[in-house]
Amino acid sequence: MDITFKQDYLKDLYTGKSTDKKHQFQSGIANDMIANNLEPFYPTHPGEVLKDEIEYRGISQKKLATAMGVPYTSINDVLNAKRPINAELALLKMQTRYNMLVAKRDGKFVEKLKNIRKIAAIF
Q1: What is the rounded CA–CA span in Å between residue 81 and residue 69?
Q2: I want to staple 11 with a disulfide (CB 3.0 to 4.6 A). Which of 5, 31, 41, 94 is the partner?
C-alpha cells in the first residue's frame, strides 16, 4: 500500500524523521501509544492547521471570509492564532484539543490541580 502526504512534515511525522519542533511528538511515549492518542510536543492552534490547508488549496483569506459570511479580520485572527475558533468555525474539536494541551503544559495550572486533588483526598 502506497501512502501519499499533502505536506512534507506529515510524511516526516509518519516515518519518525520529524525535526520540526512544532510538529514533534513527545519522545518516549509515541511507541507506547496508539496513533489517535498521541499528543504533539508543541500544541498547534487550529487556525494554523486551517491556514496550511487554505494555502495548499490556493484560497485567499478574504475569499474564505466572504464565502463563510464572516469578517476578514475574524478569519485572519483565527488563522494567525490570535483568536480561538468559535462554534461556527469549529472543526473536529480542534480548538478544545489545543486548549487542553496548552492547559496541561501550564505549570501554575497543573499545580492548582495537584492542590485540589490533595484537598479532595483528605475528605
Answers
A1: 20
A2: 5
Q: What are phi and psi of 111, to 5 degrees?
A: -65, -40
Beta bridge partners of residue 77, listed in sequence order: none
Name the nearest CA neighbour of 94 among 46, 52, 23: 46
pLDDT for 49-95, tens place per residue?
A: 889 988 988 999 999 888 888 889 989 999 999 988 777 666 567 77
Segments in 1-123 forming alpha helices (H): 8-15, 46-57, 61-68, 72-79, 94-104, 107-122
pLDDT at 23: 53
Cell of 110: 497543573
Q: CA-to-CA distance for 78 and 14, rounded, in angstroms?
A: 27
Residue with the three cell numbers 516515518:
15
Kindly state the cell numbers that stand for 48: 494554523
Write down the number of H helices and E strands in the chain. 6, 0
